[in-house]
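User:
Hi there, any thoughts?
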Amino acid sequence: MNDTPRTTNGMPRRRFVALFGGLGAGALLTGAGGGAAAATGAGAAAAADPSCCPCPTDPAPPGGGQNPCPPAHLQNLCGSPTDSDPLWQDVQYCTQGIVPPSGQKPNCLKTTPNYVVLHGKPENPHNYLLLPSCRITGIECPFLVTTTVANYWHEAWENARRGGDVPVQYDNIGLGINSQAARRMNQLHIHMAGVRESTQRRLQALEAAGRVAPQPSQWGDPQFRALVTGADGSGDRTYRVLRLGTLTQNLFDLVNLYVVRRFGLDMAGQTLIVVPKMTAAGFAGTFYVLNSDSSLPSGTDTCDHLLVYDK
């Protein structure tokens, strides 16, 4: 699925990293225990700038209104509403009724002020996508690490879980996002799919052996990096493994703060996978959050090795 590495929306990679690193250093503050970061700078501008379209900029959280979208000055990093990406065109059809130029109308499974849910490809009962109603190209968008962004991971879980509005019909559920280079479409989309039972067992075995980071601040520590066998037959890949009790924290912010900035990496190169812990009694109330990139030995920049889309 990998695309050829490219510049970030026309901006040279080196300049993007400098701008993004500047945002992180100047805009993020964390509390004890790795809580969600507070935003200033670009994040505060996003909350106040009404120029972002087509999303309204009401700062109320999900359930109480629409979250703000990236402000106009971030369009070169996060995408423009006039872009022609096919997934973005699908979102515009679901939220505004604008028929894509191809004439092919997507099946809008769920539409809210903050996100839409579509079928993944191939279409089946355990392959869905959650996409922001804002124009956000992907994980490289700096707006994602601010406190004004909607919590798309929490919304994905609430939809994909058993009893959710668009439940994933698979014994074990996985949520994932690809790096910029590994994705084919340039509208942020969280995959809601399955994971193999062997993946679930491996993660629980790592937790029992003390190989899963208990706090976000420890996420990148060497003892919490582990090999997990891919569901696609691609062999073992190295992931940084974290345990969280909830998905109320901003996962984009956490990986930026405790992995990307800590090790001088590129946010655009990261992949994230969330695997809810399951037991015989059902959901165990915690989540395994896996991160990887090409800087790790046997690392990967795609979630596709672990997620099950078509079997």
User: Anything to note?
Assistant: Residues 245 and 285 are 7 Å apart (CA to CA). Residues 1-63 have pLDDT under 50 and may be disordered. The radius of gyration is 18 Å. The first strand starts at residue 28 and ends at 29.
